[in-house]
Amino acid sequence: RRALLLADLLVEDGRQAEAESFMDERYSLGLDTAAWTLRRARLRAEQRRHAESADIYRSLLRSAPDDSGLMLQLGLQEEAAGRPGLARKTLLAARAKSSAPEIPYHLAELEFGAGDPAAGRRWAETALKELPPSSQPSLARMRLRLKSRLGFDDALNSEYGTSAERFPNEEGILVDWVD
Question: Which of 74, 89, 114, 148 has a CB 3.0–4.6 Å from the CB of 57, allowing a cystine?
């Protein structure tokens, strides 16, 4: 468990070459190989090697076909690799297995990005209904981004300000607010 955390810290610190060597070494021991494979998929995503990351997530799904979290990550990597059709198909499959609000959020972003604002709006409204109160910065940011997709007004501007004060270390909220 400490070794997995160390690998995560190396990636977070930008020491990708060290992280990859460490992952190779730990994987070769044959212990908890799925966890190391998952770390490799995340590393490939961090390296912007999205097609490779998607391939790794796809291989992980072969042994855990009902894992909606893996499906979500695969969908995100397919989108980042420039394959919106595969991303949509994968995210819809994840949605069929899970009611996690992150899935309709990403479907909304995918549809808005693909030039289908009507579908994007439907998914955004669904995600907003399902998102729990924003006790976590990532959920607060999702809620704000969805609301801004549906229309920016003074109330939303105030909500951005409140969230920026509540989560001062969440730079993404400030970036989104300025955009």
Answer: 74
